[in-house]
Design brief:
Strand content of chain B: 25-35%
Distance between the termini of chain B: 39 Å
CATH topology of the largest domain in chain A: Rossmann fold
Number of strands of chain B: 20
Number of domains of chain A: 2
Order of helices and strands of chain A: EEEHEEEHHHEHEHEEHHEEEHEEEEEEEH
Helix content of chain A: 10-25%
CATH superfamily of the largest domain in chain A: P-loop containing nucleotide triphosphate hydrolases
CATH topology of the largest domain in chain B: Rossmann fold
Shape of chain A: elongated
Largest interface: A-B, 44 and 48 residues
CATH architecture of the largest domain in chain A: 3-Layer(aba) Sandwich
Largest sheet of chain B: 6 strands, mixed
Number of helices of chain A: 10
Oligomer: heterodimer
CATH superfamily of the largest domain in chain B: P-loop containing nucleotide triphosphate hydrolases
Number of strands of chain A: 20
Strand order of the largest sheet of chain B: 6-7-8-3-9-10
Structural class of chain A: alpha+beta
CATH class of the largest domain in chain B: Alpha Beta
């Protein structure tokens, strides 16, 4: 099994730059997820690695070998498509055998049977081997598609949103199965999705892509807790992070550009940070789970608000809170808090879990190493 | 007032009973979600409310008036389709204006209403564009706008956000809910996505195979599911289901034997009493418990089941740890800091105040 390396990879379609100067290195045995909205360039990137598209610039390495000029068949990657593409008139067994019988591989009969047996056991599809694929459920078809990739024992598995056509319950089950499969097979997975839950639960590392540009690469923990910019902060995490327009005034953040409604005390660390802002305008990024609700006012950063509406998710409630027409945000409350629409309560901002983004650059404020040298 | 009442509605397609004696009440200004898997009858029900289908039996009342046999165009209801169905040759303005033009509004009145609606849905900047130039989300808003502009008595929405990206669906869920809070129109919304139902509905109607399974607020159907289907369908990650059998020991105490692994779990007296009273001793039961109500420990604990870590899923705010119980998987919700290695021995316990027991045969909740 080998690593995948992309250096300065670019692909254009007419005027549109689908992949823009992308450089990433995927480690051996890593589960790497490329995450981004529709049209970000994720599928194009995957297709470039597979050899289904030719890049306009840049290099693609599988292991130490530069594969730019290699055809897909020779690249030794297996592609799992979003729409399975199983041979409908063949049985499951025939679908699984097909790659092994190709001219390139010419695998002997006994070896084919052994591999099919092993792979069907891993995917729990042994009982389906003689069924025609048109008679399978969505989840079963998905497993066969993955099986057809596994039989080839490729260097790298390329997966293009393989779970997006399954219903919610099945997606949940398959996530855990894929995560486990990755460990059992010990292979490198290059997985593409627009669903941040999939990325967070399965990825060893995540690359967040938007409009062809790679915005941040890191572990789920890093992406979630140290988002580099507004886009990443908003894309990962559900319910979505609150982004409040604010102005730096001394050691405080005045939130609400028009109404100047509330004043937030910054932590000591944040006071040091605000020097790094280009102007006085910033965004305060604070996740709903980092805003605590209470019936009484607390000592610090506790703001009076009214419950605009409530979304009962069962395990918790998402309270949409209003301070003014301009200042509406979300907080998570345990169901036992029992807030009703119209109630007046207090929202307490846990500032040391919040992020400050420069309003101009939309980048998260960080202490530069220069400053630390002082 | 825009109350919708369905009385004993039946709809058949050949021998298939798509909707089977459905009774439903949607109060004025209520946001009711019809939730269920493909083929459960939810869209057929919506189409009957709109007048696009006629029921074989039963009555439909809109605002007290019997509209069962009234044509769709004569019911003061707006339908938002899953695939928008925007007029491709008209601009966004034209699409929004059309329903008002057919009603004979003056040009000035049309302009006023279209701009008001566009402002509400934040689509003023695209009024001149044609549908083919729009992103999915904007098309969605235009479809909603075309329904809103008529200020109908009620809105019927058929899986309007199912085809959008995950992130965008989340945004639209909150937008739609907010819109409902601001406008307060009676709404019936159809979806197969339980997250949508939970986050938007005042009331959720769970359907399966043409039959009503349960009606209640999101909190009610989440915490008190009446049968296995509802318990399984609501909640993400889903409820854990573990096969068990109540057994009596020599002292007359009833405990639960976990079938697949032959271990015994003690249960509190109040639960023992219900099992005995309902004659469920030695019957096949299913223990239902949600991931957030499962307790995980890494040392031996009284009344816990021994197992090992199968998969760890990190979601940012919390983690889900999968463990195996025989061939089944049980999921536990933990804090993000809980990060055991795969294969680590552990044991799981159940918050006894939060378990639900289902009879395996009838699939109904008994406790």
């Amino acid at each position: 099994m080998a690593e995948v390396k992309l250096t300065s990879l670019t692909k254009k379609f007419g005027d549109v730059t689908a992949v823009n100067n992308m450089s990433i290195g995927i480690k051996d045995k890593e589960f790497f997820v490329l995450l981004g909205p529709t049209g970000a360039g994720k599928t194009t990137t995957l297709r470039l690695v597979a050899g289904l598209e030719k890049p306009d610039a840049g290099e693609i390495y599988l292991g130490e070998i530069k594969v730019n000029d290699f055809s897909p068949a020779v690249r030794d990657v297996a592609f799992v498509f979003q729409y399975y593409t199983l041979y409908p008139h063949y049985t499951v067994r025939q679908n699984l055998e097909f790659p092994l019988k190709s001219r390139l591989r010419r695998t002997p009969r006994k070896e084919i049977d052994r591999i099919i047996s092993e792979v069907s056991e891993i995917l729990h599809i042994e009982h389906l081997l003689d069924r025609q694929t048109v008679n399978l459920s969505g989840g079963e078809m998905q497993r066969v598609a993955i099986g057809r990739a596994i039989v080839r024992r490729p260097k790298v598995f390329l997966m293009d949103e393989p779970l997006s056509n399954l219903d919610a319950k099945l997606r949940e089950e398959m996530r855990a199965e894929l995560a486990r499969l990755h460990i059992d097979l010990g292979s490198t997975f290059f997985y593409v999705t627009h669903d941040q839950v999939e990325a967070m639960t399965m990825g060893d590392r995540i690359g967040v892509l938007n409009e062809g540009n790679m915005l941040q690469v890191g572990t789920p923990d890093k992406i979630y807790n140290k988002p580099k910019n507004v886009f990443v902060a908003k894309f990962v995490g559900s319910p979505v992070i609150n982004l409040l327009e604010a102005e730096i005034v001394g050691e405080k953040l005045v939130i609400g550009r028009k109404d100047r409604t509330i004043e937030c005390s910054l932590t000591d660390f944040q006071c040091k940070l605000v020097g790094a802002a280009k102007g006085k305008d910033v965004f305060l990024g604070i996740r709903p789970e980092d805003i605590m609700v209470s019936r009484e006012k607390k000592e610090i950063n506790s703001f009076k608000c009214s419950v605009y509406f409530k979304q009962s998710m069962g395990v918790e409630d998402i309270l949409n809170l209003k301070i003014s027409d301009e200042l509406i945000f979300r907080a998570i409350a345990p169901p036992k808090f029992k807030a009703d629409v119209g109630d007046t309560i207090y929202a307490n901002f846990i500032m040391d879990r919040s992020h400050i983004f420069d309003a101009q650059t939309e980048e998260r404020l960080e202490l530069s190493t220069q400053k630390l040298k002082l | 007032m825009a109350e919708i009442i369905l009385e004993n509605i039946v709809k058949r397609f050949g021998t298939l009973v798509a909707v089977n004696h459905l009774n439903l009440e949607v109060k004025d200004k209520e946001f009711v979600v019809l939730l269920g898997p493909s083929g459960c009858g939810k869209t057929t029900t919506l189409r009957m409310i709109s007048g696009l289908e006629v029921p074989d039996e039963g009555k439909i009342l809109l605002d007290g008036e019997d509209v069962t046999l009234k044509r769709a165009s004569q019911r003061d209801i707006a339908f938002v389709f899953q695939l928008y169905a925007l007029y491709p040759h008209m601009s966004v303005y034209g699409n929004l204006a059309f329903p008002l033009q057919t009603q004979g509004y003056s040009k000035e009145k049309i302009k006023e209403e279209v701009h008001k609606t566009a402002e509400l849905l934040k689509i003023e900047h695209i009024l001149k564009k044609k549908p083919r130039e729009l992103a999915g989300g904007d098309m969605q808003r235009v479809a909603l706008g075309r329904a809103l502009v008529r200020r109908p008595k009620a809105f019927l929405l058929d899986e309007p956000i199912g085809t959008l990206d995950a992130k965008f669906r989340e945004e639209m869920r909150t937008e739609l809910k907010k819109l409902h809070v601001d406008i307060g129109a009676t709404t019936v919304y159809v979806t197969h996505d339980q997250v949508e139902a939970m986050s938007m509905g005042d009331k959720v109607v769970v359907m399966e195979k043409g039959l009503l399974q349960q009606v209640g607020t999101p909190a009610e159907i989440y915490h008190n599911p009446e049968n296995l289907f509802v318990a399984n369908f609501i909640g993400s990650p889903g409820m854990n289901f573990i096969n068990c059998i109540p057994v009596r020991d020599s002292d007359g105490r009833v405990s639960l034997k976990i079938t697949d692994i032959n271990e015994i779990i003690k249960i509190p007296e109040n639960i023992q009493k219900v099992i005995i009273d309902r004659g469920e001793v030695e019957k096949d039961l299913i223990l239902g418990i949600r991931p957030e109500d499962v307790l995980l420990e890494f040392k031996k604990c009284e009344n816990y089941i021994g197992t090992e870590v199968y998969v760890v899923e990190t979601l940012g705010t919390y983690n889900i740890i999968d463990v195996k119980i025989g061939k089944d998987t049980a999921r536990v919700r933990t804090l993000p800091s809980v990060l055991p290695d795969i294969g680590t021995s552990c044991c799981i316990g159940f918050d006894m105040s939060r378990i639900t027991l289902f009879d395996k045969r009838t699939e109904e909740a008994i406790v």
